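In line with agreed milestones, the collection of sequences with tokenised folds has grown. One record among many is set out beneath this paragraph:
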Amino acid sequence: MSIAPPRIKRPKTVIEIPHIVAHRGASIEAPENTIAAFRVAGARGAKWIECDVTLSSDNKCVLIHDDTLERTSNGTGPIHHSDLATLRGLDAGGWFSDIYKGERIPTLTDTLETLYFMDMGANLEIKPSGCDPVRLCHEVITELKAAKKLPILISSFDDVAVSEMRTHAPEIPCGWLLETLPKDWKSEYDRLGASAIHIDHTALTPVSAAEIVDAGVPLVCYTINDVDRAKELFSWGVTSVITDDPAKLLTSIPRRPFAANR
């Protein structure tokens, strides 16, 4: 009987995450997951953006949140059924405002190049959206290794993606995305080899936040547009909040507050 080799415990890469991260760019002011939204976020003082990366039918990394094209473009159908040329021909801005008509679905390469020259970093959410998560991870890794260096944090709801990133790119920190906190979160977090927990802020309580923070785990919350709520989360020890409105939060909370309740 063969015995599976023990899992190799890889050291976790630590990265300094800004206290305010722009959700899909400054998505309250510009069409989400577009270069325009990233530029607006940078102009408002954000140091990082959060964005969603998936694959076209010809396995090119593109930025879009949904599984289908209808909500944020003039296209139709599943993302992974369209090749890059088709996706790049769509209008990804007119749905938001006439000002942004003609804005395109960006590639990951476009995004990394833009962020590099704006001196910004990114939380890249791996979103399989019907494509193979393993192939997606490997395409992302290839692009990141070829790109100019900038601060990057990967995250995903997909356990396969988190594990794949940790196995094949252990130098890139990877957050575990959650909607709710499982009772056995710590053992699963350690098993995945994740570098942070990213969770819906409504799923947290002061007690559960303290449990995570006291375990030395960076805690990132999404999606917070209310200043008082953001301040409350920081008082619980939260590391970073992801917001559609970075201008408002950065104006009201220009730096990470001291965690008064910790």
